[in-house]
Specification:
It catalyses: (R)-2-hydroxyglutarate + NAD(+) = 2-oxoglutarate + NADH + H(+); (2R)-3-phosphoglycerate + NAD(+) = 3-phosphooxypyruvate + NADH + H(+). Belongs to the D-isomer specific 2-hydroxyacid dehydrogenase family. Residues 328-396 form the ACT domain. The chain has 396 residues and is of the alpha/beta class. It has 4 domains: 1-87 and 283-314, Rossmann fold (3-Layer(aba) Sandwich), CATH 3.40.50.720; 88-103 and 141-277, Rossmann fold; 106-139, no CATH class; 316-396, Alpha-Beta Plaits. 34% of the residues lie in helices and 21% in strands. The protein contains 14 helices and 16 strands. The chain has helices spanning 16-19, 70-75, 88-103, 106-118, 124-134, 155-166, 180-185, 196-202, 222-227, 245-254, 267-270, 286-306, 339-349, 378-385; strands at 6-10, 27-30, 38-41, 57-60, 80-81, 147-151, 170-174, 191-192, 205-208, 232-236, 257-262, 275-277, 327-334, 353-362, 365-373, 390-395. Strand 6 (147-151), helix 6 (155-166) and strand 7 (170-174) form a beta-alpha-beta unit. Helix 3 (88-103) packs across helix 6. It is elongated and about 90 Å long. The two termini are 14 Å apart. The structure holds nicotinamide-adenine-dinucleotide (NAD) and 3-phosphoglyceric acid.
Length: 396
């Protein structure tokens, strides 16, 4: 496959608004590409799929990457990109809708009305009488003055917190690793609390906006639900696994929780009378699908053509303008001492002058971009690959 072309496999349907940004003189595109250089994916589970030898990068058109073997790919020198913020507004709108669905029992109320006609065959005066007699069971509550706890103040959490605040809610936020950028976006009226326990104890509604990782699995559990005020609402547009669903269903049955609104169907949840389950609709707007596809494609393309890494979840951000008249090397290596020294020593021995160089690390791994003057022979790449700790090297 050294014909200078980049085959890209689409594992889910990716918006054509993004795909059309790929120059077809360079990129081949398809669902059944045998030896892809890049994979574009949404929620398809890649954990049990073999990793093609040919693969250079995976781009997730969306936020969550728990469907991708991120660590395994990092160890192979394969960055996994996602698209932070690109679908955040779509999720925010659904969370606001979810709060209103729960507060006014809208789903069950509409179902009740439909049944009066469709199942009971009522009409005219009889229908009106039954509507007026039955509506009291759906009497709800209003949002202003209610306390919403937002867990995870990332791209989505910040938008939800600000929107809820502007609806007149009191908003508490919890995120032990909030970024400076997100903190700047957050309304000053949102109170950041010190512990997740405090947030549960003080919130009448909580909404989850964290990734599904070891530390967030089962974050909503029996103990924390019990600490919430009676009649509380849990909204989960993050991932099913962030909530212990058995604990939530028990709390709904006992009346401690009023409603559970979520985006992740299960057999037990989907049919429960106090659960509103949507079919993973958070990012399913035309706008979000276009935004995610554009961002994923642009990041993948820039990596394949220039070696730049932007918004990878398993490698550091490394972006360097190309130096005219040079050859670029992109090198993935273990984050351990003397890697830079050994790489530059190989370049020096080959008599190559370094025009630009950048190296950044993240956790166990590091990535180097280097623009060198002079002819870079294929053996040089082999010499770099022979350094203990170098995982992968590309000549661009
Ligand atoms: N329902 C959907 O269709 C849909 C759409 C988009 C995203 N999501 C889910 O929402 C998640 C968040 O998306 P985002 O774009 O806001 O991501 P993000 O990376 O911008 O924000 C996630 C935030 O969670 C915080 N966090 C991590 N662990 C935490 C913990 N234990 N307690 C509190 N905060 C913690 C991080 O510090 C970060 O600020 C995604 O990972 C994905 O699983 C779902
Ligand atoms: O993490 C995300 O971005 C959402 O869960 C969206 O998933 P989707 O792209 O499959 O709709």
């Amino acid at each position: 496959m050294s014909n200078g072309r980049f085959p890209i496999q689409t594992v889910n349907a990716i918006s054509p608004v993004g795909l059309q940004r790929l120059d077809r003189d360079i990129f081949d595109l398809g669902t059944d590409i045998a030896e892809p250089r890049g994979i574009l994916v949404r929620s398809a589970d890649l954990h049990d799929r073999p990793v093609p030898q040919s693969l250079y990068a995976v781009a997730r058109a969306g936020a969550g990457t728990n469907n991708i073997p991120v660590d395994k790919l990092a160890a192979l020198g394969i960055p996994v990109f996602n698209t932070p913020g690109a679908n955040a507004n779509a999720v925010k709108e659904l969370v606001i809708a979810g709060m209103l669905l729960a507060a006014r029992s809208l789903y069950h109320a509409a179902d009740y009305t439909r049944n009066l006609v469709a199942e009971q065959g009522l009409s005219g005066q009889a229908l009106n009488e039954q509507v007026e007699a039955g509506k009291k069971q759906f009497a709800g509550f209003e949002l202003p003055g209610k306390t919403l706890g937002v867990i995870g103040l990332g791209s989505i959490g910040v938008l939800v917190a600000n929107a809820a605040q502007s609806l007149g809610m009191k908003v508490l936020g919890y995120d032990p690793a909030v970024t400076i950028k997100n903190a700047w976006q957050l309304s000053p009226n949102v109170e950041q609390v010190e512990s997740v326990e405090e947030l549960f104890a003080r919130s009448e509604l909580i909404t989850l906006h964290v990734p599904l990782i070891d530390s967030t699995r089962g974050l909503v559990n029996t103990e924390r639900i019990a600490s919430m005020p009676r009649g509380a609402v849990v909204l989960n547009f993050a991932r099913g696994g962030v909530v212990d669903e058995t604990a939530v269903l028990q709390a709904l049955d006992s009346g401690h929780l009023h409603a559970y609104v979520n985006d992740f169907p299960t057999e037990a949840g989907a049919v429960h009378s106090r659960v509103i389950t949507l079919p993973h609709l958070g990012a399913s707007t035309g706008e979000a699908e276009d935004n995610c596809a554009v961002m994923a494609v642009d990041q993948l393309q820039d990596f394949l053509l220039n070696g730049n890494i932007r918004n990878a979840v398993n490698y550091p951000e490394v972006i360097m303008a190309r130096t005219p008249g040079t050859t670029r090397l992109g090198i993935f290596n273990a984050n351990k001492p003397n890697m830079i020294g050994q790489i530059t020593a190989v370049l020096a021995e080959a008599g190559l002058n370094v025009a630009e160089f950048t190296n950044k690390s993240r956790g166990d791994y590091a990535y180097t971009l280097v623009d060198v003057e002079g002819e870079v022979r294929d053996e040089l790449k082999e010499q770099i690959l022979a350094i203990d700790g170098v995982i992968r090297a590309r000549k661009l």
